[in-house]
Design brief:
about 140 residues; alpha+beta; Alpha-Beta Plaits; three-stranded antiparallel beta sheet; globular
């Protein structure tokens, strides 16, 4: 069971939010991914197990790595600071052929998904989205 989402209702809300963000994009879940998310929602799989199963599917034509992690801002960020962070992240990610999702809650927590070709992804992790500057 996930510590971040300890109940089925919480897991379903998180999944619905992620699916809404990817609707009508190339990132929308395929059926096999939806099945894994349903198993996660029911508490049958942890998010780590879902990610492992995704990793062991048929290989992509280009090796892609991704990470999902959370952090907390050292201090609350203003809307202007969040906009600056988002613009900087988008520019950096585009320059380094990375894709990502950065979410911020009003409690100061971040959740970030970062994905890209293995060599670029590995080199970019410490620099991505100024996370070193905002982690507590």
């Amino acid at each position: 069971m996930s510590e971040d989402f300890p109940t089925e209702a919480a897991r379903r809300r998180a999944i619905a939010w992620a699916i809404a963000l990817t609707a009508d994009t190339a990132w929308a879940p395929e059926q096999c991914e939806s099945d894994l998310l349903e198993s996660y929602a029911l508490g049958e799989l942890t998010i780590e197990q879902v990610l492992l199963q995704l990793d062991t599917r048929a290989p992509f034509t280009t090796a892609v790595q991704y990470v999902l992690y959370r952090s907390r801002a050292a201090h609350p960020l203003t809307p202007a600071q969040l906009t600056d962070l988002l613009e900087e992240s988008r520019a950096y990610n585009e320059q380094h052929q990375l894709t990502g999702l950065l979410c911020y809650s009003n409690t100061g927590h971040f959740v970030q998904v970062l994905e890209g070709p293995a060599p670029r992804y590995t080199r970019s992790m410490p620099k991505s989205a100024r996370m070193r500057a905002i982690r507590k």
